[in-house]
Amino acid sequence: MVTPIDPDFMKNRKVAGKGEGGAYDIRGPVEPPAKLGIHGTAVAVDYDLCIADGACIDACPVNVFDWQETPGHPASTKKARPIREKDCIFCTACESVCPVLCIKITQP
Predict the structure, then answer these.
(1) Is 45 exposed, middle or buried (0-12, 13-18, 19+ CB in 10 A)?
(2) Helix (H, G, I), strand (E, B) or coil at 103
(3) Exposure on the CB side of residue 37, measured as CA atoms within 13 A
(4) Could you list the pLDDT tens digit for every one of the 108 residues in the chain?
(5) What CATH number is associated with residue 19?
């Protein structure tokens, strides 16, 4: 059984940092390399669940994601980073194709 991203992550987790140049929030716990937290808000990716399948990157019509190297993480050594989450059109294509349910789209 797959455990999905916590749908209430914004309430249940505190902001522990910022992603690439302040582009998005990272919610903890963050204890690299094993725990990397949830990256993003409107387009949130639970890095601890992400297996780098790439389906979200292929499905996104507005190129929200790119790859981020995460050496040493037990699930995968790269993650789908929501670097352009401000460009999201809330189609939920990425959320619907993720095999491990690690993405949560939340319209502001």
Answers:
(1) buried
(2) strand
(3) 21
(4) 779 999 999 999 999 999 988 999 999 999 999 999 999 999 999 999 999 999 999 999 999 999 999 999 999 999 999 999 999 999 999 999 999 999 999 998
(5) 3.30.70.20
Range of the domain at 63: 9-105
The total number of structural domains that make up the chain = 1
Ordered strands of the 38-39 beta sheet: 15-18, 25-27, 38-39, 43-46, 103-105
Question: CA quadruple 35, 27, 45, 87: dihedral positive or negative?
Answer: negative
Question: What is the model's pTM?
Answer: 0.96
Q: Are 46 and 52 in contact (CB under 8 A)?
A: no
The answer as to whether 75 is a domain residue is yes
Strands 78-81 and 15-18: unpaired
